[in-house]
Structures are given as C-alpha cells and as structure tokens.
Design goal:
Elements lengths: L1 H16 L6 H28 L3 H23 L18 H5 L3 H26 L6
Length: about 140
C-alpha cells in the first residue's frame, strides 16, 4: 500500500509540474520490482520469526540479516577484491538501470525474488503450523 501511494503521488505530482515528461510505464515497472524485493525480505523476516522462539531474538536476527545484506552490498559497490560480494545479496536481482532501459533480463530477475518470497512464506507457514503456542 505504501509503494502504491508513493507511486501514485509521484505520478500525479510529476504530471502536474512536468506534464508528459514522466515515463509512467517505467516507473510502474520499477515500483513492481521494488515490491518484489520487499516481498523477498518480508519472506525472509517472516521465516526467521517463525523459527525463533522469542520475539526479541527474532527481531535481532531479522535486523542483523537486513543490515548484513545492505553492508555486503555497500562493500561490493566499492569494487576491487570485494566485487564478488554483490552476488551474496538479494539486491543483485534488482537492476534499476536495466529496468529503465527495458532490458528483458533486468525485468525478469525480480520474478526470482517473488519465487524466493513464495518459498520462504511457504516454509514459514509450514514451520509455524508445527509450533506449539503457549496460552
């Protein structure tokens, strides 16, 4: 919902201030790809939350994983001997420049993120069903 609102407001404001200059199709495609990345991270966080027995541990683990992926991405962007690290994060599957150039591979990679999200949500649901909740 947040992405849809931001995208809608962006389109409205750009059309108001800069009529017919925004590539709306590219913006919508980029927003959909960002949504796929967020789904993958949400699936990862939900999976680890279902695996942990305490909420504090789950929050710490999820925050640490998200920060770790972002830090690895920053280190990979430095280049040099750390450039190989770019393949260690889900951010690799999001190529904004390729999406804006309508590159087919860049537009299809977020489907992998959606598949990862589906698998992680399914595994989390399976794990959650086996769990005994205290009442």
């Amino acid at each position: 919902l947040m992405l849809a609102i931001c995208c809608g407001v962006t389109i409205i404001l750009c059309e108001y201030f800069y009529p017919n200059e925004l590539a709306i199709r590219h913006l919508l495609l980029l927003t959909a790809c960002i949504f796929a990345l967020q789904l993958a991270f949400a699936g990862m966080c939900f999976f680890f939350s279902c695996k942990c027995h305490s909420s504090g541990y789950a929050l710490t683990l999820n925050a640490a994983l998200c920060i770790l992926f972002y830090t690895i991405r920053l280190l990979a962007n430095l280049g040099g001997p750390l450039a190989f690290l770019r393949y260690a994060t889900p951010y690799t599957l999001l190529d904004p420049a390729g999406i804006l150039q309508s590159d087919l591979h860049a537009c299809l990679r977020p489907l992998i993120l959606v598949a990862i999200a589906i698998v992680l949500f399914a595994l989390a649901g399976r794990s959650f069903r086996k769990r005994t909740l205290p009442f």
